[in-house]
Amino acid sequence: MSTASTKPGTVKERAGLALNDEFLRKAVKFTTERLRSGKKAASEEHGNWDDWRERGRQIRLHTIAHLDYYLNLFADNARANGVNVHFAETDVEAVKIALAIAERKQAKSVVKSKSMVTEELHLNHALEKIGVEAIETDLGEYIIQLAGETPSHIIIPAIHKNRYQIADLLSAEAGETLAPDTQILAGFVRKKLREKFLEADIGMTGCNFAIAETGSMVLFENEGNARMVSTVPKTQITLMGMERIIPSFEDLEVMATLLPRSATGQKLTVYMSGITGPRRTEDADGPDEMHIIIVDNGRSNQLGDPEFQELLNCIRCGACLNACPVYRHIGGHAYGGTYSGPIGAVLTPALKKDESQWDDIANASSLCGACYEACPVKIPLHDMLVYLRRRKVESGNGNLLESVGMKGFSTLLGGSKRMRGVIRLGQLGQKLVERDGGIRIKLGPLKGWNTYRVTPSLPKQSFRDRWSTIQKETQAEGATLDPALKARMEAVVAERKQGGGSSHGGHA
Amino acid sequence: MADTHKEWLKELETASKSKQKSFIDSISSKLGRPRPMEKPAHPFRGAPDFWRTFEWSEEERIERFGANFKAAGGHVARLASFDEAKQFIADKAAEMSAKYIIRQGQPELEAMNLEDAMPDARITVWNTDEEENWRARAAEADFGVVVADYAVAYTGSITVVSAANKGRSVSLLPTVLFAIIPVERLKTRLGEALINFDQAGRENLPAGIHFISGPSRSADIENDLTIGVHGPGVVYALFVG
Fold first, then answer.
1. How many Cβ atoms from other residues are within 10 Å of residue A488's Cβ?
2. In which region does residue A318 sit, left (phi positive, over 0), alpha (psi from -120 to 50) or beta (all else)?
3. By the 8 A CB rule, do B170 and B104 touch?
C-alpha cells in the first residue's frame, strides 16, 4: 500500500506534484485553518493555556528522562495484567513479531484502527504478503486504503480526496453506484465494516498513551472503531512507540486536556478508552488474548542527545502541521515520509541514524517558529530543523552546489565595490529577461524561486544608489526629533544592552 | 516447535523477558547513567495546582454538562427517578419503533424493570447466558441501556467501566445509547474521575474504561460532519435525582 517507492526523490519534486493539484491545496488550507481556529478557540476557552502546556511539557520531560524506569514498570505491569509484551528494536523485528502472531492464530483478516506506528512499519503490506487481509477501519484511512495511498494528514488522512473521488472508490467496493453524499457514503462504510469487525480474527491498534503504574494503554478517537477493534475480535495486537509512556491516570488528565484541543479543538474526543489487559474470565467481551509490541525503530537515538531528546515528548496531535505555512501550502505527501509537517521534517531524519540517508525535508521550512508556538508540549521544532541542517552539512552531506554558490556569493558581494558592480551588471543584464516589471525565467539560480513566484526586477535606482540621499533626509529629520521621544528611545536601547530580551526563545 | 498455544506464548514470554533487560539497559546507557531502581520524584504529577480546587455547584455541573454534550450532538434530559427514566426510554422506543433492546445487568437496571414498561420489545440482559454470542446480540440492538459509573461536566463525558454484568459492547454497538447518570456521580473535572483508577491500583482495574462524549462522529469526508460512523449515532444522557 506504500506508494513511497514510486514517488519522485526530493521534496521539491514531490511538492511540485502537490502544488499542481488545485483541490489538494484548497482542501489542505481549508482543513488546517478549521483545525487551527478550533484549537485557538478551545485553548482560549479553557484558559491558562501556557500553564497547561508547561505542565504537559514537564510531565513528558520527566517521563522521557526516566524512560528506562517507566517503560520497565509498564512492561512488568502489563504482563501482570495478562498482556503478552514484546520488544522490537527495529521495524523488521516488530513486523516479524506481528506476523508470527497472525500466523499462529491462522488469521484471515485483521481489522485496524489508526496507528502511525504501523504506517511506519508498512505492516499492512507485510500482512498481505502472508495472505492476511488488513483492513483500515477509520473512515479516512479506509478511503485512502481503497485508493492505495498513504495518509496526508496525521488527524485527517484523506484530506486530499473530494466526495466524488470517494464515491467512486466506495462504489467500486459496493458493486453499485453510491451518491456522492457524505451520509450515504459513511452509511455504506458503517455497514461494510460492521461485518469486518465481527468476522476478523485480530484487532490491531496504536497507542496514544501507556500508563506505567497500571500497565494500561489509552486510545483517543471519535468514530468508535478503535473501541471496536479492541472489543470485538478474539485477539488484540497493539503497536506502541517506546516513548508513549506517562506515569499515571492523573497525568492523563493533562494529556487529555492538551491532545484533543490541539488536534481538533474538542474538549475531549468522543471516546477515550483505557484498556488494562485482556478480557477478564467472567467478562463476555474484550479480547481473549492481548499483545503489546513496544517499538524502538530509531526513537532511542534521540535519548541523551541534548538537541533532539525533546522530540520524544511529541503527543502526535498534528497542531504543528496546521500551524505550518509550508505544510498548508504543499500538503502531507510532499514530505515523503510517514510523518509530515514540521514534526515529520524533524522526526523522519531523526529516526534514521545515517545522515547520508537524510532527505531534504529539513529544508522545507521557513523557520518561522509557528510550530513551536502551536506545540502543546513546547517542542522547539524550528531549532531542531536548524540542528538537522547543520548536522547534514557537517557530515559532508550538504548540497555541494549550494556551498559553491554561497562561496561565490560571498566573493562577489564581500566588498562594497564589487557589490555595486554586480548590481550594475544586473540592471543592465535583466533587460534580456525582464517582462512586465518581473523576471519569470526558470533557468540557472532563479529556477527554484521562479517556479512558483516572480522575481521582481532590479529597480533603475538601487537602495544603495539612493542611500546618500536618504541619509541626508533622515539626518535632517533627526535634528527635529522630539527630545522626550529621543530620551525614551535611548532608555530602551540602554535596557537592551543590560541583557534584556531574555523573554525571547523561552523554551530553555 | 511448541505443542500447544499456551506453550508457544510461554516461549514468547521467556524471550520477551530477556529482551526487556537488554532493551531497558540500552535506554539507561543512552541516558548516560545506571537504571534507577527507586521511583523517581515526580513533582509535576497531574494537573496544575490551581486546577485541583476548581469545582462547580451541582446545578452548574448539570447545566455545563448539558451544554457540552449537546454541542457534541448528544441529547440530555433531567428526570426525577429511575421510574421516569424507564418511561422516557419506553416512549423513545415507541417513537423510533425500537424492537430490540440490550441492557447491562446492573442492579439499578434490574430494579428499574424496563421489561415492565415495554411488553412488546425484546429485551436481553448482558451476559446472562454463557452460551450466547453477546457481541452479536449487541450489534443487532436498536437501543443499548447502561448506568454510568461517572460523568464529567467540564468535558461533557460519561464514564463506563467493564465488568461481568457490564459489557463494553452495550455502549458501543447499538444504534442508540441511553446512559442513565445518578446526579451524585457527576463531577466537575476529568481528574476527579481519573484519580479513582490510580487509587484503585492495577490489580483492581477493569479491562475497559471508556469515556464517551457524544455520538460517534467523523469529519473525514470533505470535513463534512458525519454522525454514527461506527459507534451509536444517537446518545441520550439521562440525569436521575
1. 11
2. left
3. yes
Sheet holding B143-147, edge to edge: B75-79, B234-240, B176-182, B143-147, B100-103, B122-125
Do B72 and A272 lie within an 8 Å CB cutoff?
A: no
Question: Which residue in the set B195, B208, B210 is minimally distant from A250, CB to CB?
Answer: B195
Q: What are phi and psi of A354, to 5 degrees?
A: -80, 110
Q: Is the confidence at residue A505, as pLDDT, over 60?
A: no
- Compute the distance between CA of residue A344 and CA of residue A339 in angstroms, rounded to an integer: 4
* pLDDT recorded at residue A457: 67
A188 touches chain B (CB under 8 A): no
A-facing residues of B in 23-52 (CB < 8 A) are: 23-28, 30-32, 35-36, 39-40, 42, 44-48, 50
Give the global pTM: 0.84
Q: With an 8 Å Cβ cutoff, are B221 and A186 in contact? A: yes
Candidates A253, A264, A288, A313: best to mutate against B (most CBs of B within 10 A) is: A253
Q: In what order do the strands lie in the sheet with A84-88?
A: A84-88, A289-295, A235-241, A202-205, A109-112, A133-136
C-alpha distances out from residue A373 to A369, A384, A464, Å: 6, 14, 37
Closest partner residue to A198 (CB to CB) among B136, B155, B172 is B136
Full 3-state SS string of A392-449: HHHCCCCCHHHHHHHHHHHHHHCCHHHHHHHHHHHHHHHHHCEECCEECCCCHHHHHH
**Interchain contact A59–B (C-beta under 8 A):** yes
Per residue of chain B (241 residues), what is the pLDDT tens digit? Answer: 557 999 999 999 999 999 999 999 999 999 999 999 999 999 999 999 999 999 999 999 999 999 999 999 999 999 999 999 999 999 999 999 999 999 999 999 999 999 999 988 999 999 999 999 999 999 999 999 999 999 999 999 999 999 999 999 999 999 999 999 999 999 999 999 999 999 999 999 999 999 999 999 998 888 788 888 899 999 999 999 9
* Residue carrying the nine cell digits 493533562: A254
ipTM of the complex: 0.97
How confident is the model at residue A19, as a pLDDT? Answer: 60
- What the block records as the C-alpha cell of B51 is 486546577
Burial (CB count within 10 angstroms: exposed 0-12, middle 13-18, buried 19+), residue A497: exposed
Please provide the size of chain A in residues: 508
Greater confidence, B159 or A424? B159
The answer for residues whose C-beta is within 8 angstroms of residue B197's C-beta and 6 or more apart is: A214, A216, A249, A274, B205, B209
